[in-house]
Structure formats: C-alpha cells, structure tokens
C-alpha cells in the first residue's frame, strides 16, 4: 500500500504564510498545512502540529509533542517532552506544561464508539503550571497561576493560584504568580518572598494587592 506522505524522510511542511520567519522547526518535525506558528516559537524533534493549530509568540514544543487540530497555545507557553494536546484544548499565555503530562477530551472513550462530537473543552489559564506526569480530565478549567503537582490527577476545576496534588487532586495551598507557596497571616494576607507581591485571601479566592 502507499504510505502517507508524512512517512517520507522527515522534512517540515507548512504553508509559508502561516509561519513567522523567526519561528524554528526542527527537520524531524511535521507542521501540517494550515497550522499557524507565531514569532520566535520553536518546534523541536519529532513534533507534529496539525492543521488549524495555533502556536503563540515565543512558545516552545519539546521533543515528541503532538498538537491536534484547532488547539490554541498563547504566548510564551513551554511544553516539555512527550506531551499530547488534543482537540478542545486552549492554553493561555505563560503556561508551563511539564514532561509527559496528559490531557483528554472524552470522558468515556470506547474504541468501537465514535465520540468525535462529544469532545469536551479544557482551558488552562494564564500562568498556570502542570507538573510532570499529571493527568487533566477533559472539561475542566485550571485557573490563572494555578499549580498542579507532579503526578496529580485533576478531575474538577482548579481556582486561580490554587495548589493541587494527589489522586484525585485536592487543594493543598496557594501559589504566587512566581510559583512560590504562600503563607497567609490571621488577616488573610501573604507576600511572595521572591517578587514582593502581596495577596489577600477571602472566601477561598486570591486577590493580588
């Protein structure tokens, strides 16, 4: 039988007008026609970026990253090695996706049942961190500057600045925008020791001061 075109010797392929001239695509990567790569982004070894995927300015895809059709990555998103980003996923600016973290888009998959019309949207908000080998169930929102510990399994929404860990993931604290765990005083105030930014905690919500 004839092999698909992308099985030929590795050469990056894309519509030139969709790729900023400062973007880097490794020769072993595949960038399908219709994908969009913005200024300064990097696509490393053995990545595959499908049509209609958008990789924002300054973002990088580590080795063996798969980006499905329609996935949107904002600016300065760091995707580490061996991550698959499936349809329905939106990642805002300044997000860190740790190595081998896992996203899904169907809650009850069966090989014999076509559920393409049932994909659930997942949103990772600005500045969030997902640790190595964490699993994110589809249909959830990870809040701005939230922090998912390595190996955690997230099954519900995570508030802004929340630290979650475990299986299933449970709330374990609060994180600054710099990624430092915050210690709140009796009045619900805390200051990040790295940035000097202060925060107020009220009714399980964090507000930068």
Short note summarizing the structure:
The protein has strands at residues 24-25, 30-31, 36-37, 42-43, 48-49, 54-55, 60-61, 66-67, 72-73, 78-79, 84-85, 89-91, 96-97, 102-103, 122-124, 129-130, 135-136, 141-142, 147-148, 153-154, 162-165, 170-174, 189-191, 198-202, 205-208. The chain is an all-beta fold.
Any key phrases for this structure?
209 residues, mainly beta, UDP N-Acetylglucosamine Acyltransferase, domain 1, nine-stranded mixed sheet, 25 strands
CATH class: Mainly Beta
- Strand and helix order: EEEEEEEEEEEEEEEEEEEEEEEEE
Spatial sequence of strands, sheet with the most strands: 1-4-7-10-13-16-19-21-22
| Terminal-residue CA separation | 64 Å
Portion in strands: 25-35%
Q: Choose one word for the global shape.
A: globular
CATH architecture: 3 Solenoid
Could you please describe the fold and organization of this structure?
By secondary structure, this protein is mostly beta strands. It is globular and about 55 Å long. It is built from no helices and 25 strands. It has one domain (10-106, 116-177): 3 Solenoid (UDP N-Acetylglucosamine Acyltransferase, domain 1), CATH 2.160.10.10. The model is unreliable at 1-17 (pLDDT under 50). The protein has a 9-stranded mixed β-sheet with strand order 1-4-7-10-13-16-19-21-22, with no helix packed on it. Strand 23 (189-191) and strand 24 form a beta hairpin. 0% of the residues lie in helices and 30% in strands.
